[in-house]
Write a structure and sequence with these properties.
Elements: E1 4-7, E2 21-24, E3 31-34, H1 44-57, E4 59-62, H2 69-77, E5 91-92, E6 95-102, E7 105-106, E8 109-110, E9 131-140, E10 148-152, H3 153-158, H4 162-168, E11 172-175, H5 181-187, H6 196-201, E12 205-208, E13 210-212, E14 219-221, E15 228-231, H7 236-250, E16 256-259, E17 266-270, E18 274-278, E19 288-295
Parallel strand pairs: 3-4
Antiparallel strand pairs: 1-2, 2-3, 4-17, 5-6, 6-19, 7-8, 9-17, 9-19, 10-16, 10-18, 11-12, 11-15, 13-14
The structure holds succinic acid.
Length: 300
């Protein structure tokens, strides 16, 4: 961690206002929010600071948050409507907006999505309106492994070699949830077969290869090895070559922050600015997190 960016004013006439600080990580993205209790409703001023920090740093880490699923949902909804994952069977009972991300099996059955994030991706990029951002709240963590990596797609775009930047200008790409589903099912045999309704829910969509962040105006690469299948309007060979070059470039170490989870961490990231990857957990260790996913805009 480096510099304190701002200090909260502490208690004032507005009794819901909290004293907290925001520390940027010494990394290509990310900041830690220290002293904010997310189990309390946020004042308009506190919310505005968090909103601004999220736009500036793309990942916010709130430590030791003793919050309920209802409180996570309430905080998430401050940023927009929530999206329900197509694998509804992994929603938390009574909380369909909360996706259980977990490798735990009970009575031989998975309690959540065990291999979420196995490939680099931006959440729900396969929807007309992909996610604005996602929150993961740690419930149970392994003693080793289980890290989450985030790659800064603004920095990746800015650092593109000029020939590649010119080559992708104005191009669009197809995203589909089904792109690697069969491959994931082979690795994780418990992954359910999709019903006809679920398949209809995730029809392929087309988005710009370079998107503009709707709130900051910054450009970002918006293709991923998980969900992007092809660039439209070019030959298969050209599409493959461009995607391979973009995938390799966008996750170079200089764009990546690796999050090592601590008990009760709440991590909130911007899917319009980042891709992320779950590094994996040894099979014999338990990991469980609750995810909420906030709907964003149609990319442009
Ligand atoms: C996800 O892709 O939302 C899950 C990330 C993780 O489990 O670390």
């Amino acid at each position: 961690m480096t510099t304190a960016l701002a200090s909260g004013p502490g208690a004032s006439a507005d009794t819901t206002r909290q004293h907290f600080d925001i520390y940027a990580f010494d990394a290509p993205l990310g900041a830690e929010v220290v002293g904010l209790d997310l189990s309390r409703p946020l004042s308009a001023e506190d919310f505005a600071r968090i909103h601004r920090a999220h736009l500036d740093h793309h990942v916010l880490v709130f430590r030791d948050q003793r919050i309920t699923p209802d409180q996570q949902v309430e905080f998430s909804r401050r940023f927009g409507p929530l999206q329900i994952h197509v694998l509804q069977q992994f929603g938390l009972a009574g909380h369909p907006e909360v996706l259980i991300v977990s490798n735990i099996k009970e009575n031989g059955k998975p309690i959540g999505l065990g291999d979420a994030g196995h490939f680099w991706h931006s959440d729900l990029s396969y929807k007309d309106k992909p996610s604005l951002g996602s929150m993961l709240h740690a419930q149970e963590l392994p003693s080793e492994g289980g890290d989450t990596l985030f790659a800064n797609m603004h920095a990746a775009y800015d650092a593109l070699p000029s020939d590649l930047r010119d080559a992708v200008a104005g191009l669009k790409a197809e995203h589909t949830y089904l792109a690697r589903y069969a491959e994931l099912q082979k690795r994780s045999p418990w992954r359910p077969n999709l019903t006809a309704e679920q398949i209809a829910e995730v029809k392929p969509v087309v988005h710009p290869v370079v998107r503009t962040h709707p709130e900051t105006g910054r450009k970002a690469l918006f293709v991923s090895e998980h969900f992007t299948t092809r660039i439209v309007g070019v030959s298969d060979e050209e599409s493959r070559a461009l995607l391979d070059a973009l995938f390799a470039h966008s996750v170079k170490p200089e764009f990546v922050y690796r999050h090592q989870w601590a008990e009760r961490d709440m991590v909130f990231w911007d899917n319009r600015s980042l891709m992320h990857l779950a590094a994996g957990t040894p099979d014999h260790l338990r990991r469980k997190l609750f995810r909420t996913t906030i709907e964003g805009d149609t990319p442009f």
